[in-house]
Structures are given as C-alpha cells and as structure tokens.
TrEMBL record:
Reaction(s) catalysed by this chain's protein: D-threo-isocitrate = glyoxylate + succinate
Protein name as it appears in the record: Isocitrate lyase
Domain of life: Bacteria
Pfam families hit by this protein: ICL
Keywords: Lyase, Magnesium, Metal-binding
Record: active site: C222 (proton acceptor)
SUPFAM superfamilies: Phosphoenolpyruvate/pyruvate domain
GO molecular function: isocitrate lyase activity; metal ion binding
Taxonomic lineage from the root: Bacteria, Pseudomonadati, Pseudomonadota, Gammaproteobacteria, Oceanospirillales
One GO process term, biological-process aspect: carboxylic acid metabolic process
Cofactor(s) it depends on: Mg(2+)
C-alpha cells in the first residue's frame, strides 16, 4: 500500500472512532493536506536537511564529481522559483541547495535600509529569512501536490485506472523542494553567548548548516573589502563550540558548521592572545605579528606592548587605532593554520575567502591542510565581486606566456575589452570558467560551490531591461515580449501568478471545508485560464 493510501486509511479509522461527529470530514482530503505539509516545524527541516548534507559530503569524499551547488536568495519567492526551475530543468533537486548571504540580508532586508556587509543589520532578520525561504519552499510542495491531486481526481472521474495509478506513483515518490540552506551568521553578532542565541534561532527556523567567520564581530567587513580584522583562534573556536552546542541542544546532532577564514586578505588583529607555553595556538598566532626587537628601555615608547618570542623581547607593530599588524605575506600560512585548527575543534567544512578564482591557489592551500586533515573540504564563494571575465582571460594569458607562446596581440591590462570577445584567448578563458567548478572540486577539494549574491544582480538586470523598453518606445510590448511571452514559451509556472500565490490551493481548501457551497476564485471568469 502506498504511503498516501495508508494515510487515508489511518484518518478514516480516526474519523470512524468519533461516533459520527466527524462525518463531514473527508479522510482523503485530510490525507492530502498532511501530505502537502510534510514538515511541521523548522527543526523537522533542519534534521532532514542535515541528513542530506551529511550524505552529500560522504558522496563527495568517494567521488569528487559529486560536488554540490547553490545560489544566494534574498527572498522566499526567489528561493522558491530557483528550486522550481532546478526541478523543471534538471528533474531533481539532488545536490542543489540554497545560500543565505549576510551581504544580501544587509543590503536588502534591513529596517535601516541598504547597508554594507558589516554586521550592522538586525541579526533577527537572518532567522526570519530562513523561515521565509522554507515557507515558500513548502508552499511549492503544496502547490505541485495539489495539481497532482486534481489530476488524480480527473483520472478517476474518467475511469482511467492506469492513469490514476501513474499519478498515485508520482504522489508517493514526490521530491520535496525543501533543500539544505547554508546560512551566514557573519562573525556571530557579538560574543560567544550572542552567537549561541542567534544560532538557536537560525536552527529553529530550519538551518542545518551555519557558516561563521573569524573576523572581529564589531569590526566585520565584507570578505572583498579592505580593513578586515581577525580574532585569535581561541576566540573563534569558542564560537564554533557555541554553534555546536546550539545544534545539540535542539536535537540536530548532525548539524553542519562551516568555518570561514578571512586571513588571506586580513592584515590586522585586534587582540594579542595569551600564550601559556611555547608552540601553543596563541604562540603560533603571535609569531605571525609584525614585530621589532627591543634591546633596551629606550626602544619602548609610552604605552607600548611587549611580548617574548623565541626567547627575545619584541614590540608588536601597533597602528594608531590600536590594531596590531601581521607580517606581510603571512596570509596563506595563517589560512592553513586557521583551517587545521577549526577542523580539529569541531568544524565540518571550510571556507577560504580568496581575492580571485584560481584553482591552483586554492589547491595549494588545501593540499597543505590535507597533510594534517585528509578529509578537509571547502565551501567556496564563486563571488560576483570577482571580475570573472578579466580574471580568466589573464590566467590564460599568463599560462600562454609561461608556455612561450606569442601573446603580443593581447594587452594583459585591457583584456576586458570587447574587442577580444571573439579571440582564441577569450574562447579558452570561457572554457576555463565553464569548467571552474568541476576542476576546483577535483583539484582543490571544493565540495560546495555557491554564488553569494547572484539574484541581487539578476533582479537589477531584468528590471533594467524592462524599464528601458517600457518607459521608452516599446511601451507595453517590452513587458509582453520580454517577460510574459518568455514565461509562456519557456513554460514558467509563474505566468499563472494567481496559482503561484496560492489561489488554487485556497479553492481546494474551501471545497474541503464548505463542499458545494464554496465560493471559489478559479472559475471560468478567472483570467488565469488564458494561460491554460
């Protein structure tokens, strides 16, 4: 017996036990509503999606071609449409996630208005967006199942038993749109207790995976901006512990923690940790500081800080703002130590924020990390902050130059010029870009590829296209040809916007509740019928 039919029988028995008081309740309708609402709480979602991520991580360890992907979404509707598109074009949501970007929350979801990515937005907006995303994904499930139930009724009415069985099979094997969300908690929005409290809210909203970075919380900067300040390992590990405790308290025992290091681009620290013995974590961190030797009291100014390193008294270089400076060129070494330390103290995945998308650079760091932690793997930001076209054209240029090829026809500093668009170099660069994710998954240990804020850019681009034509000579044709006709030709369900917003679902429920007396919106005069 199918799960759906089993639910009907269970509910029928429950109705019969009420001695006639529930005779107006249709067990099949109730079973449909239960099937359409598989996930009762955010914690149900977190536990379910954590299992997905753990299985995907194991699959990647066995075969690096089994990497995962996501796009950042700033609204529940955007996330819903993304997953509907994934299922429509690729047949399954397998290994496709959602990413919740702190950058987009700051820029698009703050009551203060648009903000830079500096943790100035309300931290409660993060769990609110997680809940919103899952509300829309669950609605996508309910809508698609509702269409299957309608088709089942039509097949039964026609006496088409073969068709009814085929639809029944689709119902029983329905793949949910609910997928893992990798959620950005920035630098934790405060001390470790603040991190724990916010992590709980995020998990309760449905997050199975939380990404946290090693910047100073109150000085947090976007990973692609200057002025980044990191914290000592002990401070960061306390926040990793806080997130793990939140997962365990809420019963999401296999919750996933992504430890992000910004050390590659961060040249400053706010704090000198206390070393208790040579070679401990604090000592290793302090060895990265830019220091000058102290020979006598004359080398020390009023208020200077001194530390002992390798038996020598040294003075860390301190800026006018009180921050301490790291040695130039120490970024990669700090990244490697950050990653090893995080994995050894409870993190599951790594995030290395880089300044360019270069497989060789990423692989060089990952290979060093894997000497200590063989199963190390990354979540990687395929960032819109990179000029991908220029970066890969320059990478091809450099490779050709190293091979001894003649590159005199190209100006390396001007390779973004449209004049090169049809050149051999540009064609190869596009191939490298197309293959970047699979190459980096194979060569550089990248388990998950994401684009942090793509839908920020797509919203701007599509709005620009429509505004240019609609407010110009094209007028209404700009919308008809550029939007509606494209929706129809490409089979986008959203062209029936009433249905997408839940109109048919509401009609179904009205019929369940009121029977023939239901006042429904989907009759013959509903203009949505023009798109049948």
């Amino acid at each position: 017996m199918s799960a759906y039919q089993d639910a009907i029988q269970t509910l029928n028995a429950l109705r019969e036990a009420q001695g006639g008081k529930w005779d107006t309740i249709n067990p099949e309708y109730a079973a449909r509503m239960k099937t359409q609402n598989r996930f009762r709480t955010g914690l149900d979602i977190a536990r379910y999606t954590a299992g997905i991520m753990r299985r995907d991580m194991a699959a990647y360890d066995a075969d690096t071609s089994q990497y995962t992907q996501s796009l950042g979404c700033w609204h529940g509707f955007i996330g819903q449409q993304k997953m509907l598109a994934v299922k429509r074009h690729h047949g399954t949501t397998d290994k496709r996630y959602l990413y919740l970007s702190g950058w987009m929350v700051a820029a698009l979801r703050s009551d203060f208005g648009p903000l830079p990515d500096q943790s100035m937005h309300e931290k409660t907006s993060v769990p609110s967006l997680i809940e919103e995303l899952y509300t829309f994904l669950r609605q996508a499930d309910a809508r698609e199942l509702g269409h299957l139930f309608k088709a089942l009724d039509e097949a039964r009415d026609k006496g088409d038993q073969v068709g009814a069985r085929a639809i029944q099979d689709k119902i029983d094997n329905f793949e949910t749109h609910v997928v893992p969300i990798i959620a950005d908690i920035d630098a934790g929005f405060g001390n470790e207790e603040a991190t724990y409290l916010l992590a709980k809210k995020m998990i309760e909203a449905g997050a199975c995976c939380i990404q946290i970075e090693n910047q100073v919380s109150d000085a947090k900067q976007c990973g692609h901006q200057a002025g980044k300040v990191t914290v000592p390992h002990e401070d960061f590990l306390a926040k990793i512990n806080a997130v793990r405790y939140a997962f365990l308290e809420l019963g999401v025992d296999d919750g996933v923690i992504v430890a992000r290091t910004d050390s590659l681009g961060a040249g400053l620290t706010q704090k000198i940790p206390v070393s208790r013995e040579p070679g401990d974590l604090a000592s290793q961190y302090n060895h990265f500081l830019e220091t000058t030797p102290v020979a006598s009291a004359e080398d020390v100014a009023e208020g200077d800080t001194l530390i002992k390193l390798d038996g020598e008294l040294r003075k860390p270089v301190r800026l006018a703002n009180g921050l301490y400076q790291f040695k130039p060129g120490s970024g990669e070494d700090r990244v490697v130590l950050d990653c090893i330390t995080s994995l050894q103290h409870g993190a599951d995945l790594l995030w290395i924020e880089t300044e360019k998308p270069h497989v060789g650079q990423i692989a060089g760091m990952v290979n060093r990390i894997r000497e200590v932690c063989p199963d190390a793997k990354l979540v990687y930001n395929n960032s819109p902050s990179f000029n991908w076209t220029l970066n890969f054209r320059q990478q091809v240029f450099d490779a050709w130059e190293q091979e001894g090829r003649d590159v005199s026809a190209y100006d390396r500093g001007d390779l973004m010029n449209a004049a090169y668009d049809d050149s051999e170099l540009a064609t190869l660069a596009d191939d490298w870009t197309r293959n970047f994710q699979r190459d980096a998954a194979r060569e550089a240990g990248i388990f998950h590829h994401l684009i942090t804020l793509p839908t920020y850019h797509t919203a701007a681009l599509s709005t620009d296209d429509l505004a240019r034509g609609y407010f110009g000579e094209e007028g209404m044709l700009a919308y008809v040809a550029g939007v509606q006709r494209q929706e129809i030709r490409k089979g986008l369900a959203c062209v029936k916007h009433q249905d997408m917003a839940g109109s048919n679902l509401g009609d179904d429920h009205k019929e369940y509740f009121s029977g023939e007396g239901a006042l429904k919106a989907g009759g013959k005069d509903n203009t949505m019928n023009q798109f049948a």
